[in-house]
């Protein structure tokens, strides 16, 4: 397997983050144009309802995905980006896309929570798989 394949799920996750920024910006501009908010309302963001879920989703893209980016880079650096790691990475990104979709559309909290937990479990599995891979590669002993 090509060692750079693990970067494609990361690129898609970054594209999701950029899309969330674009949606947030468009909704904020629309809120100002409609009179729902004033530009100065965003100095210390207190988004109107129309853009609040997008703004919160942007923040969300810098929380759990950080653990995803780090483990992907760790897989790549150690040569451990195998099929299992790649499948888990794509599953994480799919869960995050679904989470963002729900968050910025219907915002059904129970569904959003389930999708978040799915992504959380997947990233934990990725870290578990990474630990197994480095132990099997002989890197399990702690050296000082």
SSE blueprint:
Blueprint: H1 7-34, H2 49-60, H3 64-78, H4 83-104, H5 109-139
Helix pairs in contact: 1-2, 1-4, 3-5, 4-5
Entry summary:
The chain has 144 residues and is mostly helical. It has five helices and no strands.
Any descriptors?
single chain; mainly alpha; 144 residues; Four Helix Bundle (Hemerythrin (Met), subunit A)
What does this structure look like?
The chain has 144 residues and is mainly α. The protein has one domain: Four Helix Bundle (Hemerythrin (Met), subunit A). 75% of the residues lie in helices and 0% in strands. It is built from five helices and no strands. The chain has helices spanning 7-34, 49-60, 64-78, 83-104, 109-139. Helix 1 (7-34) runs parallel beside helix 4 (83-104) and helix 4 (83-104) packs antiparallel against helix 5. The radius of gyration is 18 Å and the shape is elongated. The model has no long low-confidence stretch (mean pLDDT 92).
Count, helices: 5
The assigned structural class equals mainly alpha
Could you give the distance between the termini? 32 Å
Major β-sheet annotation: none
Helix content: over 70%
Under the CATH scheme, which class?
A: Mainly Alpha
For this structure, the CATH topology is Four Helix Bundle (Hemerythrin (Met), subunit A)
> What is the gyration radius calculated from CA atoms?
18 Å
Shape: elongated
Average the pLDDT over all residues and give the rounded result: 92
Low-confidence stretches: none
Share of residues in strands:
under 5%
**Count of domains:** 1
Order of helices and strands: HHHHH
């Amino acid at each position: 397997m090509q060692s750079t394949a693990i970067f494609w799920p990361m690129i898609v996750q970054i594209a999701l983050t950029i899309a969330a920024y674009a949606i947030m910006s468009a909704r904020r501009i629309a809120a100002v144009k409609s009179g729902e908010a004033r530009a100065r309302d965003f100095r210390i963001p207190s988004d109107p309802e129309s853009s609040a879920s997008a703004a919160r989703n942007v923040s969300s893209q810098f929380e759990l995905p950080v653990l995803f980016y780090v483990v992907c880079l760790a897989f790549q650096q150690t040569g451990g980006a195998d099929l299992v790691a790649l499948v888990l990475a794509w599953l994480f990104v799919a869960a995050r896309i679904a989470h963002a979709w729900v968050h910025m559309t219907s915002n059904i909290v129970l569904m959003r929570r389930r999708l978040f937990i799915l992504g959380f479990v997947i990233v934990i599995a990725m870290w578990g798989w990474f630990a197994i891979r480095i132990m099997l590669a002989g890197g399990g002993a702690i050296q000082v």
